[in-house]
UniProtKB/TrEMBL annotation:
One BP term from GO: methylation
Keywords: Methyltransferase, Transferase
Alphabetized GO MF terms: methyltransferase activity
UniProt name for this protein: Methyltransferase domain-containing protein
Domain of life of the source: Bacteria
Domain Methyltransferase positions: 90-212
The species this protein was found in: Cyclonatronum proteinivorum
A Pfam family recorded for this sequence: Methyltransf_31
Amino acid sequence: MYFDTCFFDDSVILAEAVLKADFGTFITLHLISNQLREDTLEPAPQQWFETWFDTPLYETLYAHRDYAEARQLAALISQSFPPAQFPELVDIACGRGRHSFNLATLGYKVTGVDLSKNAIEKARRIASEKYADLSPDFYTHDMRQPLGRIWPLAVNLFTSFGYLADDAANTGVLRNMGDAVGPGGALVLDYLNAAYVRSSLVPEEVCDISNYQLRIRRSIDEQEGVVRKEMAFKHTQTGQLQTFTEQVKLYPLSWFEAAFAKVGMHITEVYGTYTGEKIQKQSDAHPRLIMMAQKDA
């Protein structure tokens, strides 16, 4: 709507300039008009996560997410950082609240934040219907921006990190997480294990999901250091095709150790599974890197 208005107004001014035979005015306004059109027609491209997480197909694809695993992870977090000592937490990139609700049932006062408006609306709806007595709060927030307050504990779970192409930008996101906890506070970051991904990657699969045939292609881009998943949803009745991409940085444990140090935190424990298998050295034997970190006093 903004573009239509600008284009119409410029056209009127240009027409008047031509009728007045004011050649200098015509040239000047023509350049201004072109600049306005370029600025309006070429917005900055959106990142893949700014659109994909808000689509109905995202919910369709991940409807099978394991709530038992979420309960296991919540229990593991409570063992390392019990709610008696860390009574409040922020769940950064909380999605529809799968982990938030499990953490709230263990006694934490939970605030969940996520970029996706649809996810936050659903989390609020579930909270009011099933968890009203626990009073979890949910807000839209872009984790690329500071959160603006402090909690004793912050969590970022199910590989909700490493979305940005630039390493410094991802470190900036980690800094925002670290800034959300006070001295002696803690951060739990649950991430994929890059070594496990490399050894177990399934390049392609086709399956039927709801009313769609889904083709998934997975690949590793060594130059960019990412694992990429390209998804093509073809509607079985209309033939309509919709495509989406996910990609995440393949950061090793050593990258996280250095990044945590940069933001004034240190990793205290690392687990490779939601059942709590500790790992001392990264290998392809475990699917996760569940990092328990604390802020330097």
